[in-house]
């Protein structure tokens, strides 16, 4: 048995290095990364995990060269178009977090469409974090709360976050070797177990995920108590 795993969050790092190591363009790494998103999502659905949040594009990623940003936007558009069938077949609901108002109207419509088409799904919820940054999310929430002009408790504050309705993060994994959170789900990960692996995202496997989950299950989680 062990700890329940309701919400798994992943920082999918290392696409660029994975491609460069093979003397390929960074775009090739992102394409492989998108395939890995599909594989890991389907595996999580079979495990009975309720929420899977994937960091696909941060508020800071706009600083990358325009060609790479454009490629990531195209990849996202393709992904949104292609995913419906697989998601519905596997009873996976699609959601996003982040400020999507900065995306093109075509992309925003594709996001809304996929959310609607999968709204009835009852298994895993796959949540893509796009144009997402925790500080940005918290500030948007604070500004909303100020309009309400009422003192907040934790639950009331959480209700203003993009993640409202989702469970807190239980397990956060970062691939690619760096040990940092990079502005990802800072409020929601207050009591998350953190795992860092050197594996680059395109090389991440269901086997490695299984090993991490079994270590997570045997961890003693005390939430500040004894
Ligand atoms: C980090 O690798 C990854 C990203 C900035 C983008 C994540 C995108 C994907 C996994 C593919 C797209 C996903 C969807 C759902 C369409 P990096 O480029 O920073 O790698 P590096 O650290 O080796 O340079």
Written account of the structure:
- With 226 residues, this protein is α/β, with parallel strands linked by helices.
- Helices cover 42% and strands 15% of the residues.
- The chain contains eight helices and six strands; from the N terminus they run E-H-H-E-H-H-E-H-E-H-H-E-E-H.
- It has a six-stranded parallel beta sheet, sandwiched between helices.
- Helix 2 (26-47) runs parallel beside helix 3 (66-82).
- The chain starts with 6 loop residues before the first strand and ends in a 9-residue tail after the last helix.
- The mean pLDDT is 96.
- Farnesyl diphosphate binds next to helix 1, helix 2 and helix 3.
- The site of farnesyl diphosphate (FPP) has 18 residues, from helix 1, helix 2 and helix 3.
Into how many domains do the coordinates divide? 1
Seen as an oligomer or otherwise, the chain set is single chain
What would CATH call the class? Answer: Alpha Beta
Whole-Å distance between the termini?
20 Å
- Low-pLDDT sequence parts: none
Shape: globular
Task: Estimate the helix proportion, in percent.
Answer: 40-55%
Bound molecules: farnesyl diphosphate
């Amino acid at each position: 048995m062990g700890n329940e795993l309701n919400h798994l969050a992943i920082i999918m790092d290392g696409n660029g290095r994975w491609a460069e190591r093979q003397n390929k363009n960074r775009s090739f790494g992102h394409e492989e990364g998108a395939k890995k998103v599909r594989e890991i999502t389907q595996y999580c659905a079979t495990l009975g995990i309720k929420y899977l949040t994937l960091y696909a594009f941060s508020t800071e990623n706009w600083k990358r060269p325009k060609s790479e940003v454009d490629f990531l936007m195209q990849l996202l558009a393709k992904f949104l178009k292609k995913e419906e069938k697989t998601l519905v077949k596997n009873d996976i609901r699609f959601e996003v977090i982040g400020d999507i108002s900065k995306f093109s109207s075509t992309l925003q419509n594709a996001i809304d469409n996929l959310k609607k088409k999968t709204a009835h799904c009852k298994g895993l919820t796959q949540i893509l974090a796009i144009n997402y940054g925790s500080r940005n999310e918290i500030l948007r929430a604070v500004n909303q709360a100020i309009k309400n002009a009422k003192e907040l408790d934790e639950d009331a504050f959480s209700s203003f976050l993009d993640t409202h309705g989702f469970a807190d993060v239980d397990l956060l994994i970062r691939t690619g070797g760096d040990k940092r959170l990079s502005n990802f789900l800072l409020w929601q990960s207050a009591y998350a177990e953190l795992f860092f692996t050197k594996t680059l995202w395109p090389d991440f496997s269901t086997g490695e995920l299984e090993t991490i989950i079994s270590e997570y299950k045997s961890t003693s989680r005390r939430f500040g108590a004894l």
